[in-house]
Design goal:
Elements lengths: L1 E6 L2 E6 L2 H6 L1 H6 L3 E10 L2 E11 L20
Parallel strand pairs: 2-4
Antiparallel strand pairs: 1-2, 3-4
Length: about 80
């Protein structure tokens, strides 16, 4: 599975191999804020992050009083 991470500086492709996707399906499909640990691979200007571990960081978005202040932005 491929997941794209994007911010104001650009984007990176996250590669999630089948065995990791099966083991961490809940995190992969259910997280509103997904943490990814892995190995970065570069091919010119293309950046890939090969995932080794996924974590659901959604509780940081739990409410307006939570530790991570967020607001919507349009990067285009």
């Amino acid at each position: 599975m491929f997941v794209t991470l994007e911010d104001e500086t650009g984007s990176a492709n996250v590669v999630v191999w089948r065995d990791l996707a099966e083991r961490q399906r809940r995190e992969l499909l259910g997280a509103r804020l997904l943490g990814v640990q892995g190995v970065i691979e570069r091919d010119g200007t293309v950046v890939h992050l090969v995932a080794r571990r996924l974590s659901d960081q959604s509780p940081l978005l739990a409410d307006a009083l939570g530790p991570l202040a967020t607001r919507s932005r349009d990067f285009h």
